[in-house]
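Hi all, long-time lurker, first post. I run a small reading group and we've been trying to get comfortable going from sequence to structure in the token notation. Rather than ask abstract questions, I figured I'd post a concrete chain and ask someone more experienced to write out its structure so we can walk through it together at our next meeting. Sequence below, copied exactly:
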Amino acid sequence: MNRVDLTASIEGIGFWADGLPSWPAARAFATGGAPAGTAAARPAPRLLAPNERRRAPDTVALALEVALAACTDAGRDPATLPSVFASTHGDLGITDYMCATLAGDPQAQQMGKVLFEDNCAACHQRSGKGNILVGAPNLTDGDWLYGGTGKDITTSIHDGRSGVMPPWASLGADNVKNLAQYVLSLSGAPHDAAKAAAAKPLFSTCAACHGAEGKGNPALGAPNLTDHVWLYGGTPADIEQTIGNGRQGHMPSWSTRLSEDQIHVIAAYVYHLSHQGDAAAEQGHAKR
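-- Answer (accepted) --
Happy to help. Here is the structure in token form:
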């Protein structure tokens, strides 16, 4: 194998910290000076458009600020340089930012709609409202099994999800019926109060996943039982079926079929589906 010698040099330095908004300020402070008392609490990178500076995550704003400062120090035009940006602790914020930004871009939404209909509609329907026959959740209601941040949605699409509700028929038919009535009571639905009261002590079996109050656990994909959203239907018969026979839900991983960019676009489209009410509320507020 031929040896290849690599060399590196530093042409310019960029620096930003709270109270030390530049490399000269940092050098002055290191030699006995005081921090700049009027320095901004957060960078406002000029490489971003003004409307994007406010929305960019702190990690993005900081990276762009110091990158521009280093280019200026070196007398280089940033537009002529190749660049790589990596963050060891900002992935969540960056993914959420990307998702929210793409969700507001009409072109990205059109692309996302096509990709969603081609790959996701078979289970979730073209409308995204889900299908209780296969346990495909409604993606438009803001109720999430595994969390609804941009990062959560992207992970669900990229890695897939597998949820298992074990069968509890061993509790006996009467206890299963009583538990169904207790579950109905948690969401304020019509129920048999006597049967629900009889089943309350048995709910400790369910609390390991759904929580003592039945509010679910996104870390496990355990649904919230206190709202009015049902994955497999919310009739007494549906709930008895779920408790007695259990459920197995599988969301396949799409990382082998879709590119990273396509996954981000679909995630943004799904994010958009669940936040349409937010957009309508903002438009209504703007009109008043």
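A couple of things your group might point at:
Strands lie at 161-165, 247-251.
Residues 163-251 form a domain with the Cytochrome Bc1 Complex; Chain D, domain 2 fold (CATH 1.10.760.10).
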